[in-house]
Amino acid sequence: MASTCTSWSPLPCGFRRRWLVLKPMQQGALHAFFQRNPYPGIATRERLARELDIPVFRIQVWFQNQCTRQLRQS
Amino acid sequence: MASTCTSWSPLPCGFRRRWLVLKPMQQGALHAFFQRNPYPGIATRERLARELDIPVFRIQVWFQNQCTRQLRQS
DNA sequence: TTATAATATAATGAC
DNA sequence: GTCATTATATTATT
Protein backbone atom coordinates (compact mmCIF):
# COMPACT_ATOMS: atom_id res chain seq x y z
CA MET A 1 0.00 0.00 0.00
CA ALA A 2 1.00 3.60 -0.48
CA SER A 3 1.88 5.74 2.49
CA THR A 4 -0.94 7.28 4.45
CA CYS A 5 -0.10 10.68 2.99
CA THR A 6 -1.47 10.47 -0.52
CA SER A 7 -0.39 12.79 -3.28
CA TRP A 8 -3.59 14.78 -3.36
CA SER A 9 -3.35 15.60 0.34
CA PRO A 10 -1.00 18.54 0.96
CA LEU A 11 -1.08 18.28 4.74
CA PRO A 12 1.47 16.28 6.75
CA CYS A 13 0.31 13.12 8.50
CA GLY A 14 -1.41 13.62 11.82
CA PHE A 15 -2.76 17.04 10.96
CA ARG A 16 -6.42 17.38 10.13
CA ARG A 17 -7.25 19.95 7.53
CA ARG A 18 -9.28 22.95 8.65
CA TRP A 19 -12.99 22.30 8.45
CA LEU A 20 -14.57 24.26 5.64
CA VAL A 21 -18.29 24.21 4.94
CA LEU A 22 -19.20 24.35 1.26
CA LYS A 23 -21.33 27.26 0.18
CA PRO A 24 -24.91 26.41 -0.85
CA MET A 25 -24.14 27.24 -4.46
CA GLN A 26 -21.14 24.91 -4.46
CA GLN A 27 -23.17 22.15 -2.83
CA GLY A 28 -25.95 22.58 -5.34
CA ALA A 29 -23.57 22.37 -8.26
CA LEU A 30 -21.89 19.26 -6.86
CA HIS A 31 -25.22 17.52 -6.24
CA ALA A 32 -26.43 18.38 -9.71
CA PHE A 33 -23.27 17.02 -11.27
CA PHE A 34 -23.29 13.91 -9.09
CA GLN A 35 -26.69 12.93 -10.45
CA ARG A 36 -25.29 12.95 -13.96
CA ASN A 37 -21.96 11.33 -13.13
CA PRO A 38 -21.05 9.96 -9.70
CA TYR A 39 -17.56 8.91 -10.82
CA PRO A 40 -15.88 11.84 -12.58
CA GLY A 41 -12.37 11.34 -13.95
CA ILE A 42 -9.43 13.47 -12.95
CA ALA A 43 -9.93 15.89 -15.84
CA THR A 44 -13.56 16.45 -14.88
CA ARG A 45 -12.67 16.86 -11.22
CA GLU A 46 -10.11 19.50 -12.15
CA ARG A 47 -12.65 21.34 -14.23
CA LEU A 48 -15.15 21.28 -11.37
CA ALA A 49 -12.44 22.50 -9.02
CA ARG A 50 -11.76 25.51 -11.26
CA GLU A 51 -15.41 26.33 -11.84
CA LEU A 52 -16.44 26.06 -8.19
CA ASP A 53 -13.17 27.36 -6.72
CA ILE A 54 -12.66 24.27 -4.56
CA PRO A 55 -9.35 22.39 -4.30
CA VAL A 56 -9.30 19.16 -6.31
CA PHE A 57 -8.77 16.97 -3.25
CA ARG A 58 -11.90 18.40 -1.68
CA ILE A 59 -13.84 17.53 -4.80
CA GLN A 60 -12.44 14.02 -4.50
CA VAL A 61 -13.44 13.73 -0.85
CA TRP A 62 -16.91 15.09 -1.55
CA PHE A 63 -17.60 12.53 -4.26
CA GLN A 64 -16.27 9.72 -2.06
CA ASN A 65 -18.55 10.74 0.80
CA GLN A 66 -21.47 11.25 -1.50
CA CYS A 67 -21.09 7.76 -2.96
CA THR A 68 -20.96 6.02 0.40
CA ARG A 69 -23.85 8.03 1.83
CA GLN A 70 -25.99 7.56 -1.22
CA LEU A 71 -25.75 3.82 -0.63
CA ARG A 72 -26.96 3.84 2.93
CA GLN A 73 -30.34 5.36 2.13
CA SER A 74 -32.94 2.91 3.36
CA MET B 1 -24.64 9.66 12.56
CA ALA B 2 -22.70 10.78 15.54
CA SER B 3 -22.76 8.77 18.70
CA THR B 4 -25.25 9.87 21.30
CA CYS B 5 -22.78 11.59 23.59
CA THR B 6 -20.11 13.24 21.49
CA SER B 7 -16.57 13.80 22.64
CA TRP B 8 -17.02 17.39 23.73
CA SER B 9 -19.66 16.34 26.24
CA PRO B 10 -18.02 14.53 29.14
CA LEU B 11 -21.26 13.84 31.01
CA PRO B 12 -23.22 10.63 30.45
CA CYS B 13 -26.60 10.89 28.77
CA GLY B 14 -29.45 11.80 31.07
CA PHE B 15 -27.31 13.85 33.40
CA ARG B 16 -27.50 17.60 33.20
CA ARG B 17 -24.60 19.61 34.51
CA ARG B 18 -25.05 22.54 36.84
CA TRP B 19 -26.22 25.76 35.29
CA LEU B 20 -23.40 28.28 35.08
CA VAL B 21 -23.91 31.97 34.36
CA LEU B 22 -20.99 33.59 32.60
CA LYS B 23 -19.57 36.72 34.14
CA PRO B 24 -19.92 39.93 32.10
CA MET B 25 -16.17 40.01 31.50
CA GLN B 26 -16.21 36.45 30.20
CA GLN B 27 -19.18 37.18 27.96
CA GLY B 28 -17.50 40.31 26.63
CA ALA B 29 -14.34 38.44 25.80
CA LEU B 30 -16.26 35.66 24.07
CA HIS B 31 -18.31 38.09 22.02
CA ALA B 32 -15.22 40.01 21.01
CA PHE B 33 -13.47 36.85 19.93
CA PHE B 34 -16.52 35.51 18.12
CA GLN B 35 -16.55 38.56 15.88
CA ARG B 36 -13.02 37.77 14.76
CA ASN B 37 -13.43 34.01 14.50
CA PRO B 38 -16.75 32.16 15.00
CA TYR B 39 -15.13 28.75 14.52
CA PRO B 40 -12.05 28.47 16.73
CA GLY B 41 -10.04 25.27 16.54
CA ILE B 42 -9.35 23.10 19.53
CA ALA B 43 -6.07 24.85 20.35
CA THR B 44 -7.75 28.25 20.38
CA ARG B 45 -10.65 26.97 22.46
CA GLU B 46 -8.19 25.62 25.02
CA ARG B 47 -6.40 28.94 25.15
CA LEU B 48 -9.67 30.79 25.68
CA ALA B 49 -10.60 28.29 28.37
CA ARG B 50 -7.38 29.00 30.25
CA GLU B 51 -7.57 32.77 29.85
CA LEU B 52 -11.23 33.05 30.86
CA ASP B 53 -11.20 30.20 33.38
CA ILE B 54 -14.07 28.36 31.68
CA PRO B 55 -14.07 24.61 30.94
CA VAL B 56 -13.35 23.83 27.30
CA PHE B 57 -16.68 22.15 26.64
CA ARG B 58 -18.51 25.24 27.87
CA ILE B 59 -16.50 27.31 25.40
CA GLN B 60 -17.61 24.92 22.68
CA VAL B 61 -21.25 25.12 23.73
CA TRP B 62 -21.14 28.90 23.85
CA PHE B 63 -19.80 29.15 20.31
CA GLN B 64 -22.41 26.72 19.05
CA ASN B 65 -25.23 28.65 20.71
CA GLN B 66 -23.79 31.94 19.52
CA CYS B 67 -23.86 30.72 15.93
CA THR B 68 -27.56 29.90 16.16
CA ARG B 69 -28.34 33.16 17.93
CA GLN B 70 -26.53 35.03 15.19
CA LEU B 71 -28.61 33.29 12.54
CA ARG B 72 -31.90 33.92 14.29
CA GLN B 73 -31.40 37.64 13.85
CA SER B 74 -32.57 37.66 10.25
C1' DT C 1 -41.66 35.73 29.51
C1' DT C 2 -37.14 36.32 27.51
C1' DA C 3 -32.49 35.01 27.26
C1' DT C 4 -29.35 31.64 27.31
C1' DA C 5 -26.89 27.42 29.21
C1' DA C 6 -27.05 22.64 28.27
C1' DT C 7 -28.36 18.17 26.03
C1' DA C 8 -28.98 15.47 22.01
C1' DT C 9 -28.96 14.29 17.24
C1' DA C 10 -28.43 14.95 12.23
C1' DA C 11 -25.54 16.33 8.42
C1' DT C 12 -21.25 16.50 6.56
C1' DG C 13 -16.01 17.43 6.00
C1' DA C 14 -11.80 14.93 6.63
C1' DC C 15 -9.12 10.86 7.06
C1' DG D 1 -15.82 2.94 8.30
C1' DT D 2 -14.51 6.29 11.74
C1' DC D 3 -13.76 10.53 13.82
C1' DA D 4 -14.39 15.58 14.15
C1' DT D 5 -16.91 19.70 13.44
C1' DT D 6 -20.99 22.29 12.31
C1' DA D 7 -26.16 22.84 12.24
C1' DT D 8 -30.38 22.45 14.40
C1' DA D 9 -34.07 21.19 17.68
C1' DT D 10 -35.29 20.91 22.24
C1' DT D 11 -35.11 21.17 27.27
C1' DA D 12 -34.02 23.52 31.43
C1' DT D 13 -32.71 27.38 34.40
C1' DT D 14 -31.98 32.21 35.94
From TrEMBL, chains A, B:
SUPFAM superfamilies: Homeodomain-like (SSF46689). Keywords: DNA-binding, Homeobox, Nucleus. GO terms for cellular component: nucleus. Residues 18-74 bind DNA. It is found in: Nucleus. SMART domains: HOX. Residues 16-73 form the Homeobox domain. PANTHER family: MIX-TYPE HOMEOBOX GENE 1-RELATED (PTHR46123:SF4). This is Double homeobox protein 4C-like. It comes from Odobenus rosmarus divergens (Pacific walrus). The gene is LOC101367439.
